[in-house]
């Protein structure tokens, strides 16, 4: 038949040497170029004393090494994994699509036939199971899983880098505020010897009102505030003044904006990697991605809830600082003095906020990766996207 002639494949001993050498040369060249590029980036960061970003780059290299080891295990072990047989009844449980494999879309049928022709030789080479049993995972399935893990690692790094870039752009907008602290107008308007009523200062006035003193409306107001003005000029100046008084001499010409930028780089070093907990969440979501459960949709909501909760909490911290100033002093001298403390954070652990952001970044990257992987491997209108509008919503949330 035509299909059998199309699926005939040459073994390596029957393949032209120029084809083998050419493919190996291209793969080796790409690998060397990538390694040299990462080395040059590391040297550039070292020359500019960007130690935190250099450590983040080392984490990216370590993640690529883990990815390469996973790829090696999948490639070397695929024939052994395909020999593991399980009862057919067990194989038909917790499926992401219908067990009969019926496809409604003609393009999906064509793609399925293409995949069947592509992996027919590999599947026929795999040892068959006895009647009533099926392989644990087919060779084709292992190849698709291989692509999914590769997509996830790459997109998580890209997603983290984009987030880092947006953060730096946000902080760059504070540069002119820092420059204002060296002007004569700033020294005059914020004269340390000048006394003012607490409720007349811009920081207290911006964060305190009638609703902030009511527990019912306190967090509601903080929730909506994060959408309009995450960090205002008065917030920056007040926090800067508190930091300098606490850690340096009053009136010091310390560049607080550069300090915040370095702190962002330190935080980026922590969120760029994939921890064992994040890999475990990846495995759990794959396990629960059963047809009809809509687990991945609810999983796409979790990062949104986390980010909104973190934003609300940070706004609540600023508001509580302003309330404490107004309750502690009726009159202040110069800029209001805020006193940062771990007590404002959940369970007294500021690091928990960073862990939550790390988890949200990974889950967002996973949602986008999963959508693109299904599009690449099975088609945009495959059975994984039985509810296509819901799939678009998941990707949009990411």
TrEMBL record:
It is a multi-pass membrane protein. It comes from the Eukaryota. One of its GO terms (biological process) is defense response. The chain crosses the membrane at residues 18-39, 60-81, 145-166, 271-290, 296-318, 352-376. Keywords: Membrane, Pathogenesis-related protein, Plant defense, Transmembrane, Transmembrane helix. One of its GO terms (cellular component) is membrane. The keyword Membrane applies. It is found in: Membrane. Its main location: membrane. Pfam families: Mlo. Belongs to the MLO family. PANTHER family: MLO-LIKE PROTEIN 1, MLO-LIKE PROTEIN 8. This is MLO-like protein. It comes from Punica granatum.
């Amino acid at each position: 038949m035509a299909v059998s002639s199309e699926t005939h494949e040459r073994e390596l001993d029957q393949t032209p040497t120029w084809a083998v050498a050419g493919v190996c040369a291209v793969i080796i060249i790409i690998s060397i170029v990538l390694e040299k590029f990462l080395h040059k980036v590391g040297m550039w960061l070292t020359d500019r004393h960007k130690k935190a970003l250099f450590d983040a780059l080392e984490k990216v290299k370590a993640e690529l090494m883990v990815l390469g080891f996973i790829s090696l295990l999948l490639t070397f072990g695929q024939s052994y994994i395909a020999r593991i047989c399980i009862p057919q009844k067990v194989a038909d449980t917790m499926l992401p699509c219908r067990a009969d494999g019926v496809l409604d879309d003609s393009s999906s049928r064509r793609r399925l036939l293409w995949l069947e022709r592509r992996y027919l030789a590999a599947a026929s080479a795999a040892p068959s199971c006895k009647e009533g049993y099926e392989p644990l995972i087919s060779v084709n399935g292992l190849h698709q899983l291989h692509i999914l893990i590769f997509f996830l690692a790459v997109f998580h790094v890209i997603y983290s880098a984009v987030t880092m870039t947006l953060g730096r752009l946000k902080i760059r907008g504070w540069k002119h505020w820092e420059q204002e602290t060296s002007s004569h107008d700033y020294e005059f308007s914020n004269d340390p010897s000048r006394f003012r009523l607490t409720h007349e200062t811009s920081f207290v006035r911006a964060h305190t009102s009638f609703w902030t003193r009511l527990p019912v409306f306190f967090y509601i107001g903080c929730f909506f505030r994060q959408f309009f003005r995450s960090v205002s000029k008065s917030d920056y100046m007040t926090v800067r003044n508190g930091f300098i008084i606490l850690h340096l001499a009053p009136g010091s010409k310390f560049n607080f904006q550069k300090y915040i930028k370095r702190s962002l780089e330190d935080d980026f070093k922590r969120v760029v990697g994939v921890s064992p907990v994040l890999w475990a969440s990846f495995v759990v979501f794959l396990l629960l991605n059963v047809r009809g459960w809509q687990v991945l949709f609810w999983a796409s909501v979790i990062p949104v809830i986390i980010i909104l909760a973190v934003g609300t909490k940070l706004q609540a911290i600023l508001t509580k600082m302003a309330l404490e100033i107004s309750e502690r002093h009726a009159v202040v001298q110069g800029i209001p003095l805020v006193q940062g403390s771990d007590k404002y954070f959940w369970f007294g652990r500021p690091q928990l906020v960073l862990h939550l952001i790390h988890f949200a970044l990974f889950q967002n990257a996973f949602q986008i990766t999963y959508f693109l992987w299904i599009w690449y491997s099975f088609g945009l209108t495959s059975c994984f996207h039985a509810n296509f509008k819901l799939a678009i919503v998941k990707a949009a949330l990411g």
